[in-house]
Amino acid sequence: MIQGILHIFFLVLFIYMAINTLYFFVTAVAGKLYRPKIYQTQPGKQRIAVLIPTYKEDEVILNTARKAKTHDYPEAYFDVFIAADQLQPATIEQLRAIPVHVMEVQFEISSKARSLNYLLNNIPEDQYDIAIIVDGDNIMMPGCLEKVNAAFNSGFRAAQCHRIAKNKNTPVAVLDAMSEEINNNIFRRGQRALGFSSNTIGSGMAFEFKKLKEIYNKPGILGNPACDREVDFETMKADICIEFIEDAYVLDEKVSSRAVYQRQRTRWLESQIIHLRLFFDKKSGPLPKTRDYWNKLFSNLAPPRLLFLLVYFVIFVVYGIEYITKFSILYPPYIYWFTITVMYVLVFIVSLPRNFYSWSTVKALSHVPALAFSIIKALFSMKVSRKEFLHTPKAFTQDGATEHS
Question: How far is CA 174 from CA 60, 93, 163, 257, 392, in A?
Answer without folding.
Answer: 20, 35, 14, 11, 17
